């Protein structure tokens, strides 16, 4: 064995969420979940790994995700072809079909979790990233489309985010896209000299995706290309108009972007993206649309569906940009103690205070030892606790504890000596009763 200790680092494009950021994530997740529940959405959890074929079938074989971004591998035990999920819709739809979930009425579902795409990492684009998603299965009209969009709007409001705008489009049904596609191919063929290599490769396989190009040299060509909106038939148009009417009536601002086609193939009719200018090139914080044909593709009875997913890292970064979150508190009470008997009492009291609903950190020994009172008090200060409870020989002898206010506002109050058996009531009173008005057990106070 070599003496050299190897240092490991996280996989490129995959991030640790450290304790300093964890409270903001927690608050963000609680806010999203509260909003999802307020619209009647129910939680679903599906595995992170699925058969590779599931994603190829759902997302489409000629898409960036399936062609070059999937973490696929062979299960060395049995040779199965597996993939780390690049998104959540395919797994949810698989579960809905597998468990016959859509046949006893429509379902509103939500999920959260890590997704994996082998993209080139940059700000806002990671190889492991977290999504919150919602899928409404079994609803046909534009009303559910409007509801999902309004759910997002409420969420941005609740998070204090004002710089997110909505882009909307309808990409019609398969037949309408087919007619548009034929004209689009003819148009690009007539202008083949302007196409880059990728566009040429996609010309016959997936010409719609050419409209998505970021290549500046192709922008004029793409801008003048036949617009899918002009090919929509009566039903698709009525659906789109119905959605716009509901959004207008509810004061939801949006821009119709005829070039919005999305990077996944399962969509039909409504597609939308929530975009901000504050995150550089990765400004789409939430995106989704209708996928009416997908469930049938998976062997289910024809059942319409629509959903969205939001990138959690991007939204967290936006929230941070709105103002520095206050330093998170680790606990309400920090227990300082010295001596064997004091330690026993500290353990007992800490458990009782936790029983009463407060968060307590009990000082524990490090490789340097238990630490002096002074060094323990430093830890107490650093923890953000409102109070330190101190137990030493004198306190043990007199069956009391010392309770010291640590926040500046409480400093005048100094230190109180409280009988051991009354300590829990006293501390709860102090923490809840006015010394910590915004005590909410999330220990995060950010000011949007
Ligand atoms: P998507 O547009 O591929 O759609 O991803 C949705 C959101 O996830 C994006 O708008 C972005 O905020 C975030 N996201 C995507 N890739 C990355 C990445 N590499 N790093 C960080 N964030 C990322 C879907 O995934 C669909 N399943 C949405 C949907 C649900 N449609 C219907 N239902």
Verbal overview:
By secondary structure, the chain is α+β, with helices and mostly antiparallel strands. The protein has 2 domains: 22-172 and 232-321, Bira Bifunctional Protein, Domain 2 (BirA Bifunctional Protein, domain 2); 333-441, Rossmann fold. It is built from 15 helices and 16 strands. Strands 1-5-6-11-10-9-7-8 form an 8-stranded mixed sheet. The chain has a 5-stranded mixed sheet with strand order 13-12-14-15-16, with helices on both faces. A 3-stranded antiparallel sheet has the order 2-4-3. Strand 12, helix 12 and strand 13 (360-362) form a beta-alpha-beta unit. Helix 2 (52-59) crosses helix 4. The two termini are 54 Å apart. The model is unreliable at 435-448 (pLDDT under 50). The structure holds histidyl-adenosine monophosphate. Histidyl-adenosine monophosphate binds next to strand 6, strand 10, strand 11 and helix 11.
